[in-house]
Design goal:
Number of helices: 5
Mean pLDDT: 86
Strand order of the largest sheet: 1-3-4-2-5-6-7
Length: about 200
């Protein structure tokens, strides 16, 4: 059983939680399925609000999971009906989040399996690599693909992310969720071990 609760929505740095738990960050383009995947992982369809409207998440949302980690749902980048000025503001907030948070254990970068990595996905990947934060690439909405399409898309993404694990997932069927849990649990434990040795 997974215990999950919404903690807060941060619209500025001063809103970030002071509780220093390892943070599992979900990042990706607008409408890629971050909130849906979070809901599937914790077994609660209503925890994170989902919408078919791109750019619906307009703040950084924090969820406490099993009293041991935070799941952090970032605003999606790219197209949004909120307008360019709002998108620029969210981008600034996300950049500040990565600058000041010392509790990030891993970033789960979500990529739409039907489209493969876009230019914006590649840009985000390069930026995260430069920050040297552990990262897991998750291909979402895999239930929309045939088996042959899955093989093709996995080949494409694997060539892009050489020597890095890629998980094909679906918030609808639960495919890939066990693998994702294994990776984020390992990342959280590694973070705690590192913090303990530093402290």
């Amino acid at each position: 059983m997974t215990q999950a609760e919404f903690i807060l929505s941060a619209v500025s740095e001063r809103d970030f939680p002071r509780e220093e738990l390892p943070e599992i960050v979900f990042a990706g383009r607008s409408n890629v399925g971050k909130s849906s995947l979070i809901n599937r992982l914790v077994g609660n369809k209503k925890l994170a609000r989902t919408s078919s409207t791109p750019g619906r998440t307009q703040s950084i949302n924090f969820y406490r999971i099993n009293n041991s980690v935070f799941f952090v749902d970032l605003p999606g980048f790219g197209y949004t009906k909120a307008g360019k000025s709002a998108a620029a503001q969210w981008k600034k907030l996300i950049e500040r989040y990565y600058q000041v948070r010392r509790t990030i254990a891993i970033t789960v970068q979500l990529v739409d399996s039907r489209m493969g990595p876009t230019a914006m996905d590649l840009q985000l990947a390069e930026w995260l690599d430069a920050l040297e934060i552990p990262r897991l690439v998750v291909m979402t909405k895999s239930d929309k693909l045939s088996n042959n399409q899955k093989v093709t898309q996995l080949r494409v993404i694997s060539e892009w992310r050489k020597n890095q694990d890629v998980v094909m997932s679906s918030a609808e069927t639960g495919a890939g969720c066990r693998e994702i849990w294994n990776r984020i649990t390992a990342a959280a434990e590694a973070f705690k071990t590192l913090e303990g040795s530093v402290g």
